[in-house]
Amino acid sequence: MEISKELINKQSRQWLKNLRSFPSGTRNCYTLKPDKGKNNTYLIRASFWYADYDDENRTPVFDLYIDVNYWATIDAFDEVRREIIYVAQRDEIQVCLVNIGQGVPFISALELRPLNNSIYQIERGFLMLGFRDDVGGLNSTIRYPDDVYDRIWESWSPSTWRILKPGKSASDLSNNNDEYKVPGEVLRTAQTNDTMSYTYTPDNVSSKCIGYFHFAETQILPSGQQRELAVSTSNSQFKETVRLEYLKSVTVVSTPVSGSQISFSFEATTRQSGYLPPIINALEIFEIKELPNVPTAQDDVKALISTKAEYTVNKNSWKGDPCVPSKFAWEGLNCSYGNPPRVISLDLSNNQLTGAIPETLANLPKLRILNLSGNKLNGSVPNGLKRSCCIGFSIIRSYLFGHYLVDYEETDKRNLFGTESSERTLGLKNRPFKYGEVSRITGNFEQVIGEGGFGKVYLGTLDNSTIVAVKMLSESSKQGDKEFQAEARLLMIVHHRNLVSLFGYCNESKHMALIYEYMANGNLRQHLSGAFLCPVVLFLLENEIVKLYFVLTAIGKVEIHSIEDHSKVLTWRKRLHIAVDAAQGLDYLHNGCKPPIIHRDLKTTNILLNEDFQAKIGDFGLSRAFATENDIYVSTCPAGTPGYLDPEFQSSGNLTKKSDVYSFGIILFELITGRPAIMRSRDGSASVHILEWLIPIVESGDIHSIMDPRLQGEFDINSAWKLVEIAMSCTRPTAIQRPDINHIWQS
Fold this sequence. Notes:
By secondary structure, the chain is an alpha+beta fold. The chain folds into five domains: 5-115, Sandwich (Jelly Rolls); 130-289, Jelly Rolls (Sandwich); 298-429, Leucine-rich repeat, LRR (right-handed beta-alpha superhelix), CATH 3.80.10; 432-517, Phosphorylase Kinase, domain 1, CATH 3.30.200; 572-746, Transferase(Phosphotransferase) domain 1 (Transferase(Phosphotransferase), domain 1, Orthogonal Bundle), CATH 1.10.510.10. The chain contains twelve helices and 49 strands. The strands form 14 sheets. Strands 3, 6, 9, 10, 11, 12, 16, 19, 20 and 23 form a ten-stranded mixed sheet that branches. It has a six-stranded mixed sheet with strand order 32-36-37-35-34-33, with helices on both faces. It has a four-stranded antiparallel sheet with strand order 2-7-4-5, with no helix packed on it. The longest helix has 21 residues, at 572-592.
C-alpha cells in the first residue's frame, strides 16, 4: 500500500512512501537468511510510518518480535524506527509482527546489516538502540556509505554545550582504523563544556543499559598538553578514564548500568598539566533485552517446514516458530516445553491432503500422536515414521472426547486414514501401571512424602532408576474418583516445563494412583516463613556469642532458628524466578491450550519445586477446560481453597481465567511477605486475610514492613515494588480489572 496522497509528496525517503500490511493471522514473519549465518552479529532495523495509508486515521498498535522473543510495541503515527544488535541463534532470523487486537500490523522497511563480531559484544540477550547521536553534527543524518555498517547518526547539539571547531586536518579522521569504524564525518565534530552529562531514561527501571562513547581529539594542542577525561555514572556503577591523541579515535564502553534515570558524566581529570575541558564526539545508548524463550528444536522445525511445503498447508497460524511462544503455537500442534521445546503431537486431519505421507515426519523424534484422518492420502506408512513415532504398525489417531483428548489406536492396517475402522480400542498415551508394580516401585508404600485430601503421596523408583512421586487415592478421599480421573486425563494432554509431568497411572479395581515426576524441594509453602521474625537474641555459650531468632508460624507455633539458617531461605532472585516459572505454566494453560484450561486451585502448596528450584504447577483435580476462549463457567458450589478464591467467583459463581489470576496474585504476595494467605492473630483467636493486612501498608508507601523478614533486607527495592504492583493488579476485586497472565510474566 502507498501512504496517503497528502503525505506522499512531502516524504523524501523512498522507503517510507509505501508499506505492507498483514490483515490475516495473529503472527506474520519475515525470514532473513544472512550469508554468515548463526553465531554472528547483525544490526537489524525496522521502520514504520502509518501516514493514514488506509484512510482510517487510526494508528494501529502491535508487537514486534525477534525470533521467538518480544522486541517492542509499535505505535507509529509519526515515523518510528526500531533497531537492535543481535547475535543470530540460527542460520535464519525471523522478524515477526503480532496482532494484539489494536489494529492491522504493517511495516515500511526492514534492514539487516552484518557487523564485526568484535564490536557490540553481547553476553546475553540483545541490544536495543535508545539513541545514536553525532554530537555537534553539521548534517541532519549520516549513514552508508559514510558509515560502512549503515548505522544512522542523528545530529545532536545541546545548547548548554559549546561547539568545538575542528582543526584543518580533522578530515583525516576518515582514515582511522578503529574497529568501530565511526565515520570521520561524525568524529570531526564535537562539543565541549566545563561540566557535561547525558541523561537517559530506560523503558523499564529494571532494564540494564550500555553506553558507547566515541572520542577523537580534533584540536592541535600546545606542546606537553593532552586531553584526559573520566566517563562515569552518577551512582558510581561505572567509571573509566581516557586520554586522547590527535586524530586517533577511541571508544569507551560502559558496563551494564541500571536505574530509573541513568546519567553519564564527562569530566576533565586533575592529572593534566593544563586545564582542558572534556569533549564528546558521538555516543550510542543501548538497552539490554532478555531472550527468555528458547526456539523449537531445529530438526523439528525443518521437518514441519518440509511437511508444510509438500502438503501446501495454508494455515494462518503456521508462521514463525512452531511451538514458541506457546500462545502462538501452530494450530494442530502440541509441544513439550523443555530445552529446547519439541513437537509431541501433530493434527493434520480433515485437510483434503493427497499423495503419500512425507518421510520427513520421521524427523520428529518426540512425536507420539499423528492424526491424518479425513484426508485422501495413499500408499503405506513410511518405515521411518513407524519406527519413530508409532507403536508397531499402528498409527495413533486423536479425537476430542468431552473436554479432554483421548487417544484411539487404529489397528486396521487396510484403512489407516479413512473415517471407519474395523476395530478401535480406547487407550491412554501415558504408561499404565498394575497395582503390584506400584507397590513394588514404592517399596510396599514405605516412605510417605506428602498427604492431601486425596490420600497419601509415596516416594518411588522406576526400573530405570528414575525417582517418582506416587499419589494414591484413598477410599476415604475427599477429592473423589471424579476429580482424580480428571487430573489424570488433563495431565495426559498438557506438557510444559512449568507443569508437573505425569509418567503413568494405575486404575485397577479399588486402587487408583498417579505416578508423577519427583519434585525434590517439595512445595513453595514449605519454603516460606508463614509469619514474622522476632529480633535476634544474643547469648554467651562457652565464651562464644550465639545468635538466635524466633519465628511465630501461621499456626501460632514458636520456632527457634540459628542465624546460619538464613542461608536456607529462598533468596529474592529465586523468588522472582519461581514467580516467572509459575506464571509461564499458567500462561500455557490459559493461552497455550486449546481449549483453555482453568486450574481453579492455585496456591503455594500446589507450586512444586525441583532440585534446581524450578517451579511447576501441580494438582489439577479441580481444573476445567472451556470449549472456547471466552467461555464462562457458572458454578453453584465454588470450589477451591479459602484465601485464594476470587471474590467475584465466590459471589457470582462465574469462573474465568481471571479467577486463576487472582489466586496467582495471592501467591505473589506470599513470595513477597513470607506470610500465608490466611494469617492467624498472635493469640490465635482471629483470622486475617493477607490483603487486609497488606494493602494499607502498601498504600502508605512502606514496602520494607511487608517484606519477608527472613530476607534480612537482601532484595532489590525496584523489583520488589514492581512485584507488588503486579500482585495488586492481579487481586483487584473484579475480573475485568485484572491483566491476562501473559502480560504479567512478560512485564
